[in-house]
Amino acid sequence: MVRAAVLPAVGSPLEITEIDLPEPGPGQVRIKLAAAGVCHSDLSLTNGTMRVPVPAVLGHEGAGTVVSVGEGVTHVAPGDGVVLNWAPACGKCHACSLGEVWLCADALTGAGSVYARRADDGSDLHPGLNVAAFAEETVVAANCVLRAPEGVPLTDAALLGCAVLTGYGAVRHSARVREGETVAVFGVGGVGLATLQAARIAGASKIIAVDVSPEKEELARKAGATDYVVASETTAREIRGLTGKQGVDVAVECVGRAVTIRTAWESTRRGGRTTVVGIGGKDQQVTFNALEIFHFGRTLSGCVYGNSDPAKDLPVLAEHIRAGRLDLSALVTEHIALDGIPAAFDNMVAGKGGRALVVF
Length: 360
Known about the structure:
- With 360 residues, the protein is of the alpha/beta class.
- It has 11 helices and 18 strands.
- The strands form 3 sheets. Strands 3, 5, 6, 9, 10, 17 and 18 form a 7-stranded mixed beta sheet that branches. Strands 13-12-11-14-15-16 form a 6-stranded parallel beta sheet, with helices on both faces.
- Helix 4 (163-174) crosses helix 5 (190-202) and helix 4 (163-174) crosses helix 10 (310-322).
């Protein structure tokens, strides 16, 4: 048996309890977790903004060591360090055939499976977003594990599974930030901090961080922000003032709220790009009029998992880490145990801190 954080139902508090985890079957891998990041997507699952079958063990950003493998698994072996990939591409659907693996139609089919049972009553448990990283150990499909980069501690590597791939990909693949361009990043949480670092790596000339909390300025500047704006009704005007009254070349929204998306759009120069990374609810309606769409000539785009291909992007990120350009520790503001996850959710709602990291 292993300890895990179970979501019994949407809207219910997490329960830290023991679960019975089977040995890996054909095409499966059992992993002992080293660390798991507490992501806003996990919070979105608890409140119903995103939906997966429940009861479920949440957690989708993690890394650990292979304990055992099932029949047919050859790319990893017991003792290997691995990073979890919560959205594995099937390689067969229409999106995959176009090379857009981040839009794979079957990426989350594993979330509907039964992968473990509660120890107290034997009830079925689903693996959250495929990988159930909020547990001491987990069993996942083989295509959900990638070899961890050499020279990167597993506790740091956990962040590569979502926050860093998403933030880096938003800058590199979605917004395609070019050297010398100006960038605004809305939301200084784990993904926002990764986005700031990615903008710095891309060579952005001015990087403006925006958040509701004045206390996050130091975090943002450490990650690469050259300027910091406390969110208000005048945010777009302040950003235009910092960019010669033009607006930024690229705005990246990492919050998922209608007002923030709209502000990011208004902060973007004519002909610029606005990329939305944050996951908002259906009630978050954003409006535009036809004339402004024509007049400003901006591009507004969504961004799923950073439009990344983890198998290709992890080696690139590893090089940035080893060269000192990417500092994973700068994303983490709190190290916690499993029972600290509910408080980490509360901090997230309150807009406090960056990434909370569960360390096993």
